[in-house]
Amino acid sequence: MAKGIILYRSKYGATKQYAKWLQEALGYDCEQATGAAFRRAGEYDAVIFCGAIYASGLKGFSLLRKNAEKLRGKRLAVFCVGASPYDETAFSSFRQRHFSGEMAQIPVFYGRGAWNTDEMTVVDRTLCNMLRKSLEKRDPATYEPWMQALMSVRDGKADWTDRAYLEPLIAYFSN
Ligand SMILES: Cc1cc2nc3c(=O)[nH]c(=O)nc-3n(C[C@H](O)[C@H](O)[C@H](O)COP(=O)(O)O)c2cc1C
Q: How do beta strands 29-32 and 57-58 pair?
């Protein structure tokens, strides 16, 4: 049986939750994506990187890129977690922006995360409040999908995490 590891980068726990669900489903090792963890990943046949999306960037992406060479030849996939509902056009442009060159070969999957204003750092909460205020003045038709999601959150809380988002990724690693 292939030896696999899940490396995750999560700030508020939604991506970690997906990593744990993946661990249950695939029986792989699972740990936070640090430089040392990426180096250890060289010993595995299969590697899954799970990263949270912040301001259209992927947490931990620079580590993944830095270690891409080491992971060559392994079964590798990425699972991204954001507030946005899945949107083909937005996700494909996100994918192209990050996964170019040799990294374009990596299969990238997506699942929705969670939102909890009370748990956020002061900086994140302030940023989101400022964004909300500026979006209130804009035509909702011009919102990107994740902005719509942000505006749809009531009482500062939402949880869109769902194991079903992992099914395509689990199927990919089960074949
Ligand atoms: C400051 C901030 C910026 C965010 N930017 C995005 C974004 O660009 N796209 C998106 O889909 N979600 C965005 N989100 C939502 C997070 O991706 C979502 O809350 C996710 O569950 C975070 O994962 P984590 O709990 O593992 O940290 C943002 C959240 C915060 C607080």
A: unpaired
Ligand 1: which of 22, 53, 134, 147 to mutate, most ligand atoms within 8 Å of CB? 53
- The residue whose CA is least distant from atom 22 of ligand 1 is 52
Q: How far is the first Cα of the chain from the last one, in angstroms, to the nearest whole number?
A: 12
> Where do the domains of the chain lie, and which CATH numbers do they carry?
4-114+159-174 (3.40.50.360)
Ligand 1, atom 6, residue with closest C-alpha: 54
Entry field: residues in the chain: 175
- Say if pTM beats, i.e. exceeds, 0.85: yes
Q: List per-residue pLDDT tens for the chain, 175 residues long.
A: 679 999 999 999 999 999 999 999 999 999 999 999 999 999 999 999 999 999 889 999 999 999 998 898 999 999 999 999 999 999 999 999 999 998 999 999 999 999 999 999 999 999 999 999 999 999 999 998 888 999 999 888 999 999 999 999 999 999 7
In short, whether 55's Cβ falls inside 6 Å of ligand 1 is: yes
